[in-house]
Structures
1.
Amino acid sequence: MGSINASVDLRRDGEVAVVTTDNPPVNALKHEVRAGLVEALRQAREDGAVKAVVIGCAGRTFFAGADITEFGQPPRPPSLHDVIAAVEGMPKPVVAALHGTALGGGFEVALACHFRIAVPGARVGLPEVKLGLLPGAGGTQRLPRLVGPEKALRMIVTGEPIGAAEAQVLGVVDDIAEGDLTSAGVTFARRVVAEGRPLSLVRERDEKLSAEGFADAAETLTQRLRGQDAPAACVEAVRNAIVLPFEEGLRRESELFRRLVAGDQSKARRHVFFAEREAARIGDMPETTKPRPIGRGAVIGAGTMGGGIAMCFANAGIPVSVVDTRRDLLQRGLDRIAANYRTTVSRGGLAADEMERRMARIAGGTELDAVAQADVVVEAVFEEMDVKKQVFGELDRLAKKDALLATNTSTLDVDEIARATGRPRDVLGMHFFSPANVMRLLEIVRGQETSFDALATAVALGRRLGKVPVTVGVCYGFVGNRMLARRSAETERLLLEGALPQRIDAAVVAFGFPMGPCAMMDLAGLDVGWRIRQGRGERAVIEDALCEAGHYGQKTGKGYFRYDAGSRTPLPDPEVEKLILESSSRLGINRRPIAEEEIVERMILPMINEGARLLEEGIASRPGDIDVIWVYGYGWPVWRGGPMYYADRLGLARVRDKLTDYAGRSGDPALRPAPLIARLAAEGRGFGS
Ligand code: CAA
């Protein structure tokens, strides 16, 4: 009894042994934890005075899973299977006491216990699919036995956890613990002993193992996950739970896990998992920097963007004022917010009373003085420098001291905007992506004078709003849109050289994006870029011609594609085809068929090249930051790891040679390999090195 090792502790409370793991921050099941658990269980088993065991964790959560940093390293026994065998081999009742997030291998350990109790706020789930894996420690065999295959499949393929209340209804947890969890666990264990309750193991149960509804659920759940290995493996494993004996199902699960964990898709997803967390760090920020408290927000501008940003605040429980000086626009904005919430309620995504609570957090006003109470102000007015500067001048006068002043500009110079105030250290960009209440990316634009605590505040606020914040430097388009501009330029060229919108989009969708560049432009509105180009004296042959012909995208029912009334399905448009062919012939271009492989390369390599330049200029701090931006802001397929990660997989020498070739053919100097690519390729290295 006592300390087993640095992570695991064993003590006795009367006849109950309490095994507690403390491995901050999330009690991942690293080697030392597994070894400690096996040893603690051995001691508890051999101690005649022990009649039952409670397994729990200190800190913020029960085991949140296997230690992901150990994947890809040689296995070190005892394995998670050994821990589970020690639990299941225990001739005395074992109770798992759950709090926080019992995920992956952590939940699988709990599933092997005889009983499970949880605090009301606990969540349990098998999120391995999000790492390109399947649950590898029996989860695909035990969960179907506990909740039925259809429900288990739903949880495993989506990776979404469930709350304690639902877990109790499903029979996953036996009791909800009020008050202190460990005491509740001990009390529960004593009751089991006193009542002589039988020690049933999940593996021995089969009353819910029915194939009913399974095939349909498998079909609908995986429909939109084409190209991904893990969901298909999850389906196979859960089906095995129905048709194979337990041990055989377990053996197949291990095989599938080993194959996935060594595969490219899981490696890519693990890269994104860590890159996402790394992106929240700002390299030169002193560790002592503390974010400022945020109790109230204000959003200037009640347009689509402003409304979406206000919803983010309300959803996160932060009261927010929306200010628009024009009463009609304000009302329209507030109506749009209410309509958005109503849609979510009608689809079952939100309870009606929760919608009321969220709406009640949003106050509308036409006077800028409303910002005086706000700890953060996000400006989302018209994308024009003079307008923005005027707003920031006013904010300087009205906002309280130490308020964070953020602009949601997507193109303008944040430093110039900051200079319109007497407090540039409080000013930065918070670049949300449309629709702001849905898209998870948040580019935090660091100005020359932005202070560390302002940055720390923006990052912390971003996470509170459920976003993935990535800090970037000031330049035209920042990271995401500057790279996107390269893709758009290449789309134009492909259209002129011989490809049609439907062909380009199909190639990009086949690569794994949810939509192609042309459908995306139709969604965003072609006129936006057109106006910006007019202001900058730039031209895009096809896109401008489309705008001149009234093709603004979905909002006008026609863009690169045409749309039937009320529909969002892009349909090939003969009128557009004609316009493209005429443009080619006007420029004397002989159109040719372009292979899918070439389309994909030309959609992706110019972006990678621009990404390299952004790294050279220090606008992006890490290649992983760029990957996170593209995964969360632009739908880059997460199982391909992001553009910079993908470039490393291709090999930078190949990237360099292809770019050199395309630069020569097109005559576009922007396509010449960035010096960083040339240097790394010559050294045989990648961005990740
Ligand atoms: N292994 C190693 N490190 C982990 C980890 C894990 N399973 N889960 C989280 N961490 C680390 C994070 O990298 C982060 O590290 P830094 O502070 O150094 O950046 C730290 O723990 C805190 O994580 P978050 O910032 O994500 O904290 P949070 O409170 O926002 O979220 C969480 C906590 C919900 C547990 C979230 O971290 C999470 O979802 N983790 C992954 C859970 C998971 O996928 N588990 C399954 C693992 S695979 C498995 O178990 C396979 C199997 O069947 C054998």
2.
Amino acid sequence: MIDSHPPVAILGTGLYTPKESISNAELVAAFNAYVGNYNHVNQAAIDSGDLPAMAESSVEFIEKASGIKSRYVMNKSGVIDPARMCPSLPERSNDEPSIQCEMAVVASREALDNAGLQASDIGAVIVACSNLQRPYPAIAVEVQAALGIGGYAYDMNVACSSATFGIQNAVDAVRNQSANAVLMVNPEICSGHLNFRDRDSHFIFGDACTAVVIGPQCSGAFEILGTRLATLYSNNIRNNFGFLNRGDESGIGQVDKLFVQNGRKVFKEVCPMVADHIVQHLADLDIDSSSLKRLWLHQANLNMNQLVGRRVLGREPSAEESPVILDRYANTSSAGSIIAYHLYQQNFERGDIGVICSFGAGYSVGSVIVQKS
Ligand code: COA
């Protein structure tokens, strides 16, 4: 929408990066050890044709298919233990802060510093991410308390698009004066809902947390020229975990309680949807794509980003125009496009325009067009 309301801007961003990381070689070594053990234990059934043998993964495939070389995780030892293949993150007591709150506080403090604001300047906290470690009390209320913020807080989930949908909510809140400024945070523990025993997807995700402060426009900030959201129901990316269908105790016994996708279909259906979405959004704001300085795209897959970039710009985007962070972070769900924005916006001059765009399960797409003031 083009608006006649007082301008709203992104005032600052922050990033929490976990201390531990797993290279493709380490991940593949663990996966292949798991496969070797699985095939050994099930040798008789495999030989009789009752069970298919599991195939090994490869570093070359992962890098070629996705562009991912490494990923940060909240716990490495559990993920690369062939006898476990999921993070070891013990449940915490009610008196301890949640892991997502801890991640959120670090990213939020940096975002507040960058914005030059104090906790007392914020009127609302939105935690927007793919998976929340509990339904309630909201993680956002916990973050609000940990930072000493007043006003109100709530959690929301639009999978990989959670951050742009959260920014839309923040913009609406500032415009409608339900909050003077909003802290929007994306604590993503994707390793907790990734099936590290699934060859097709074990390499896709990593963990990280981003934070964005949105408030009234001020000099030097990135004014939000427009936001646009879209959703279209699809079963091609799913996670069926929930309190009515929890799977077994370990959470790894029933694979559809973790992330599952039809990757080929996602690629084919989502890329054109995203490119058309951005092109139309720019056109409606009378912005020519040739005047775009940067595309901060959701970081799921390098080939996806290159295709979307080509369709929007009408040519191959340069590395500077469409920065890639998934080589070292992998897909961090809603945090991905914000990590790209956080790390690659320092050389913007007054008047330069860029697009933050997320996409993912739902399907869902969100674009936020910003201009350096
Ligand atoms: N190691 C080695 N080989 C593998 C492998 C692995 N880990 N996983 C799959 N393969 C093999 C397959 O068996 C297949 O072999 P075949 O041709 O002999 O049958 C081949 O590689 C191609 O597999 P496919 O699943 O079709 O791969 P792909 O080229 O479609 O790439 C994705 C897979 C997931 C990277 C790709 O579909 C994609 O990027 N999709 C976008 C989805 C996405 O990122 N979603 C996140 C949420 S937005």
